[in-house]
Specification:
Elements (H helix, E strand, L loop, with lengths): L10 H24 L3 H4 L1 H29 L12 H4 L2
Amino acid sequence: MSLVNITPEDAPLCAVTMATHYMAFAVMKIDGKFGEGYAKNNPALLAAFVTAAAMTEAAALITTSLDALITTPLAQTSEDEPEEELLDD
């Protein structure tokens, strides 16, 4: 499942999955740096780490979505095409 193409129905599960991933990764990194149990004993640090990771992911998702909008050509409709008789004058 691509984060860019998730459906509204999939969004809650995706959010929980990502939050769980961020939390586990944060604990691993914090405990690896400061020692076993440091993340558990410092919930504000853990929360800040998870928040930063989520914000970075959100920024990347927004950037990817905007890039896709900018680089995708708009479909031309018949209403967009000039009428020939107007150009002949």
